[in-house]
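Figure 2 data, in text form.
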Amino acid sequence: MTSKRPSRLRFNFGFFLEASLGTSRTIELSYPTIQVEDLTLSPLAGTFTATRTSEGVYLSGTLNSTHLSECVRCLEEATVPIHMKLDDLFYYPAHTAPEGEYSIGEDGFMDLAPLVRELTVLETPIQPVCRVDCQGLCMECGQNLNIADCGCEANPINERLSALQQLLNSKDN
């Protein structure tokens, strides 16, 4: 039986739950590389403030990271910057949390991994590119046009339409 490693984004807030309402604490994160479920973030850094409320612990702050993805134009690796804004309530006790909301376990531990994964996925562009001026792949031969020109004809004419091209060429003369 394999056991799942505990998340590195799991924090003990048991002491905080006994604090008076309005108590806050600022937490700074700085991970060179971190695995968040199925995503690798490198680096993950930022600060957030945890504030005790009547319903649980409210988190606010920002985290910054980069995520490796695949460029939709050339299929090379693309490094996508991720800017996450934390603005979430972790309910305590857990049974008071509405369905689908985050909660703090009865042991006082709060796991930020699901929240960080969700924010990363939401901040990742639908069509990531390796760079703004990426030229992509040649539609004929598949050559990466960022590396070298392939020499394929720029606009090949379908042979069924070549008679129309001849008419256009004769009008130009």
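Caption note: Strands lie at 10-12, 24-31, 34-36, 39-52, 56-70, 77-91, 109-111.
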